[in-house]
Amino acid sequence: MKPVYRTAALLLFALGALTMLGCGALRAASARQAHINEQMQNYTYEKSLDQIWPEARALLFEAGYQVRDTGEGSTTLETEWSRSEGGSVVRYLVQGIELDGGKAQVRFNSQAKTKDGSAGGGRDYSMEWRLVQRVEPTRAARIEGDADAAGEAARGD
Questions:
Q1: Which long-range contacts (CB under 8 A, 24 or more apart) does 140-146 make?
Q2: Residues 13-45: pLDDT tens digits?
Q3: I want to staple 151 with a disulfide (CB 3.0 to 4.6 A). Which of 28, 41, 68, 95 is the partner?
């Protein structure tokens, strides 16, 4: 085989191998995130809403959102519209649900409007995940360990 063809063949082989490795990494990251999102869908805190609610508010403030007054003792927060990095505007509606046995659930829902006027939104599992990491770090570490295992299983290397 001529050296030029051999070099081209090696280059194509290397490119194919890198592509396969990249696909495995993408599958792993996707499976990891899917596991975390699945856990957030019905996540129930082992703490009362009174213990969680200040942290949910703090999370919004730290992200640059201003909370509208929803009344004293309310378990619903609504933020003002805030400009995001991409130029769209986003706001949140956060709902706290007190459950029996001193447990609670918290849901973050976002709404976004882009420059061209289109709108979207829905559950924001990433904000919910950040809250779990803050409020129940031991349980978050277990979820993260399981998510890492799901990612490795999906990698398929």
A1: 143/35, 143/36, 143/39, 144/36, 146/35, 146/39
A2: 554 544 444 577 777 788 888 889 998 999 999
A3: 28
